[in-house]
Specification:
mainly beta; 14 strands; 48% strand
Amino acid sequence: MNSTLPSAIWASRLNSNGSVLWGSGLGIQIFQGSTGSSDASRNPRVSRDGSQLCLAWEQLNSTNSSKGWNLLANRIKSDGTFVWGTNTVGSEISADWPGDQINAVIFPDDSVAATGVGGLLAVYQNYSSTNSIVLTRLMPDGAGLKPAFPNHLFNVCRQNNDQTLPKAVKTAAGELLIVWNDTRSNGGGSYSSIYAQRCDRTPKR
């Protein structure tokens, strides 16, 4: 991430000898908001699917403060080219939902389209008066969401007070094991507990 506005997401790839393969040593720009705007991109999260880089990041909607931070994503091929969109158009995961969608954990989806491209699974924190943990599946076309919009923020856990900072791993069967900090039991006080859930990629609990 660069430090000037609009801040951007960059990436690079090194081979086993340490040689830089993307961008002639400069890297490649994954995403940048509108020139001259106060849009900001931050907190990139990555995973790997074969030779492809899967990534998601938080994107600020500077024109509508009620929309806060949203999640965008893309896949990058081994040669540094984009599977979806461009470096100014990312695939929407949270679809400009009100509040903040942050702290994502992402995984490649095991299903693939006829083109051989897979989708993404994203577990993340959603803020709307309180924080909850949600799951969205981005389909292989880089546009479709499951559950479908406007129900695409599937609730992994929404209880009293806050559920924050999700972590997750994917099983060999393609299911997600998800854990998070949870303050449901203490009235929103200074300590939290750890809770967990198991979800499949449909998604359902």
